[in-house]
Amino acid sequence: MYSDTVIRQCKKDDNFMDISKLYLKTWQTAYKNILPKSLLDKMNLETWKPKKRWKDTIIATKDNKIVGVCSFGKIRHSNDCKFGEIYPLYIDPEQQKLGIGKRIINKAIKDLIKSNYEKILLWVIYNNYSAINFYKKMGLSQIEK
After folding, report:
1. Using an 8 Å Cβ cutoff, are 119 and 83 in contact?
2. Whether 69 contacts 21, CB under 8 Å
3. What long-range pairs does 73-82 form, CB within 8 A, spacing at least 24?
4. Measured between alpha carbons, how far is 76 from 8 in angstroms, rounded to an integer?
5. Burial class of residue 62 (count of CB atoms within 10 Å of its CB; 0-12, 13-18, 19+)
6. 67 burial class (0-12, 13-18, 19+ CB within 10 angstroms)?
7. 128 Cβ partners below 8 Å, 6+ apart?
8. Confidence class of residue 69 from pLDDT cuts 50, 70 and 90?
């Protein structure tokens, strides 16, 4: 099923333009009926700066193509050092429902636990039901609507 997909730590010399392309493709697909078209139309490959977090990023590759990405680290909007945060988790829409997202997020959670974070937070747009259902299936709890 997904034995040909490799989950690994991002490297400094990975192709970050490919990661930006994945972000753009995923946003345009996942948020098509959630966010305003005008906002999605403004996004481009320069919208994201994935190279800034390469040390805290896990990627999934299939046939040497990046098909998934997850970045994580210290919570961004608080000084509470007990909280880690999963920033983005994006899987190529053509590769979804193959177990890649589950494998990447499990690795991210393990890495956050190794970094001594006691709690992990991630944000999901309130009406992104596909993502909410995915995280619930992963055993994560919704704490606010």
Report:
1. yes
2. no
3. 74/117, 75/121, 82/117, 82/118, 82/119
4. 24
5. middle
6. buried
7. 30, 31, 34
8. very high
Half-sphere exposure of residue 117: CA atoms within 13 angstroms, side-chain side = 21
pLDDT over threshold 80, residue 78: no
Burial status of residue 17 (CB atoms within 10 A of its CB: 0-12, 13-18, 19 or more): exposed
Place of tokens 């983005």: 88
Residue 34 CA to residue 80 CA, distance in Å, equals 31
Burial of 66 (0-12, 13-18, 19+ CB in 10 A): buried
DSSP state of 56: G
Global model pTM greater than 0.70: yes
State how far the Cα of 87 lies from the Cα of 76, in Å rounded to an integer. 9
Task: Express each pLDDT in 38-64 by its tens digit.
Answer: 999 898 887 777 777 788 899 999 998
Q: What is the 3-state secondary structure (H, E, C) of 7-38?
A: EEECCCCCCHHHHHHHHHHHHHHHCCCCCCHH
* C-beta separation of 25 from 92 below 8 A: yes
